[in-house]
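Working notes for the structural subgroup meeting. M.R. asked for a predicted model of this chain before we commit to crystallization trials. I am recording the input and output together here so anyone reviewing the notebook later can reproduce the run.

Input as submitted:
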Amino acid sequence: MLKVEERFMIKELHNQGVTISEISRRTGHARKTVRAVISGPVTPTKRRRKRKARKIDPFVPYLKRRLEQGVQNAQKLYQEIVARGYTGSSRTVRTFVQPYRAERRRQATVRFETEPGQQAQVDWGSFGTIQHYGRQRRLYAFVMTLGWSRAMYLEFTISTDTAWWLRCHLHALHYFDGVPREVLHDNLKTAVLSRTADNKVHWNPRYLDFAHYYGFKPRACQPYRAQTKGKVESGVKYVRGNFFSGLFYNDLADLNRQALQWLDTVANVRVHGTTREVPMERLLKEELQPLSGKADYDTSLIGYRRSTKDCLVSYEGNYYSVPFAHAQQQLMVKETELGELFIFTLDGIEVACHYLALGRNQRVVVGRHYDGLTFVSKWKQRLGATQRPTPALFELAPDAPRVEERSLGQYEQWLEG
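Returned structure, recorded in C-alpha cell form:
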C-alpha cells in the first residue's frame, strides 16, 4: 500500500501535466496503480474486513451475564459453556475474559471499616507439606483477624475438617479473650453446606451449634466476592511473607510455638499500616463479648467403626483393641484434641480408651481386653471341650535362669585332667 506522501507526489505530477507513463517511470509504480491514485483520495479509507464467525459468539451473552455476576474464573466459565455445547478451546475463553479482569483491577474500592467488637474475619492458607508422625501431610494455616483492632491469631494444622475448623476458632477466642459479634468467612463446607437459588444459606449444623454456644453470628461471603474479607486475606499474605519465609522448624508443635511467639513479639505489637496503631493496644478497646467462664465446646472428631473378630478397631491406619465382648460390633470412636481415642457402644457406654499411635499399621493392644476369652477348635467343639488361653499369650516370658560364671582357666584344668 502506497504511503500518503507517495500518493500526494503522484497527484502533483499529474496536475503539472506529466503523463501517466512518465509518472510510472519516475515512481516505479505500475500505470494501473498510478491511475488508481489519480482518481482516488490522498488518504484512502481502509476497508474493514468482515469478521469471521467465532465458535464463542453464540455464548457471549451468557459469558457477559456471568461476568456481571462476578464470575471471572476463565476455567469455570469454559466448563459452563462446554456443558451448553461450546466446542472451542479454553484459550479463547481466557482471551475473552482478560479485558474484564483488567477493568476490574482498575476499579476503585471503598475500604469497609467495622465498629469495635463487631467482626472477625477467618481464612485458611495452604503452606505446602510437613512430615507429621512419619507421614507426609498437607500443611494449612488458620488465620483470624479482628476487623477493628487488626489483632491476629495464627495456627498451623494438617487438616481443614470440621473438628480443626472448630478447634482453631476456639483457640482464637481464648487468645483474644473474647468473642466478636459476627465471624465472616468463605463458603467452606465446614461452615456452609449449600446455598439456594435465592441465596439462602444452609449451615453446617455443628458449626451453627458452636456459633450459638459462644454467641456470635456466622456470615458467609457472597460467592466470588472474596475481597469482602480483605483484612484476613492480607493477614495470610503477611504470614507468608513475614513469618513463614525462610523459617526453620522441627515439627508441627514447634511450628505453632514459633507462630505464637511471632504473634506476641511481631505481628500484634507492630504499628499497623492502616490503623497506624498497635493491634494489641487496640485489642484492649475491642469490646469483645466475654467468654463468661464457659466450659470449652467439645471439638472431638466423631466417627463409627466396626470391630474385627480379633477385637480390634481400625482408625487412621492403626488398630486399637476393645474388650472381646464387643468384637464384630458397630462402635463409635471419638478423637479428642489431646490425642486420645475413646471407643463407645452405640448407647454411649465407654468400652476403651487409647492414645493415638504414631505412624501406620501399629497395633495398640490392652491385655485385659482378652481376659476370659476362650479359643475353641472345630474338632473339640464336637467333644464340647474348650481350651483356655495360657498367660504366656499376653504376658512377658519369665526371665531366663541364671548361669554360673567360671573363668577359662577352670575349663583348661578339666581338659588336662
